[in-house]
Amino acid sequence: MTEAPQEVKGRSIRVALTATALVAATYLIVALAVTTIATADLTSRIDSRLADSLRNVPRQPAAGDPPFRGPPGDRPFGPTLLIWTIHSDGSVTAADAEPTLPAGFQRVGSPTNVTLAGTDLRLAGTAVGTDYVVVGQTLDEVSRARSTIILAEILIAPILLAVVFLGAVVIGRRVAMPIELARQRQLEFTADASHELRTPLSVIEAHTSLALTQERTAPWYKSAFQQVDRESKRMHALLDNLLWLARFDATTSVPNAEPVDLGILASQATDRFAVVAQTRHLRLGVEVDEAGAVITAPPDWIDRLLGVLLDNACKYAPDGGSVEVTVSRDGGRVLLAVDDSGPGIPEGERARIFDRFHRATDGPGGAGLGLAIGHAIVRATGGRWSVERSPLGGARMAVSWRTSAGT
Fold it and tell me: For the chain, which terminal residue's Cβ has fewer other Cβ atoms within 10 angstroms, N or C?
């Protein structure tokens, strides 16, 4: 599977939408909080300025003194203060620029927001002798700052949410893809295993049913038991391979890795298959480099790999054909090659021969787990495959590893 399954795409989009909605809600809360805090901070600064101005009002103004004017407008710390002086007789003294102060705000105390002549103001007041002084400052600075913050938040929001959505989709697919592929492989593995087990079970069931329905001749029983024996051994081999793959999939590291002489293991494996070769009149040979070929790997894994390669070679080589095992050194690598004189592997099938339950031919043979096991061993031990046309006319299955240190 090179493309993401549609189910993964749909799930990743749904997860991304959920994540984006959560981020949007969080961003809205944070944006409101930032706006509120910034507004409160700026308003607090205005309140401090108004309070400082009121503290500077002379408590007993001298007769004939002009009304209190507060700090001049060109001071760098803020806009011009608006000043109203309410006298004891009810008259109001103010500069020409100040708007008329309504009676309802002539006794304002703590800072209060009001709107005068269409302008938002912050007012505060205090008694000065027999008079009452009210100072105010426009909230334009607060409004401008709040508008700038809101505009920035509005501009950032779509970019942030787009990045979150796309990032969630990409991450979701990367996380979900291996899980989905593993699930698909598990389903396929289970289906293939069930199919492979169904055939021998059907054969065994058929023979036992026929044997129980009526009396049979001794030759018939012998033939039936031979067939049951073959199918039982086939099931045993299949279950053994399935259990090995299950244990391998659960393994997190290479166990019992140690320096092993590949030439010795190859010679021993070839000796074991000598009887198989004799029954089919195969010429089985082995050639080992005298310089030695030591790699670091679990010996039982390498032995199983050799068994898989020799079993396939002997199985597909024709009667009277040849199988050759070669162990040699090529620079800093050790090469194991198994050649046979069989039909070979078509180039279009070479990419799939390591898939579990895949067989390159429809002829009689195993369940298609041997090369899958071999591939798992080669991958786990850091080897490299090479599948080519053999000089003998069939297939060459070759694996190379780095030599162990000191060899």
Answer: N
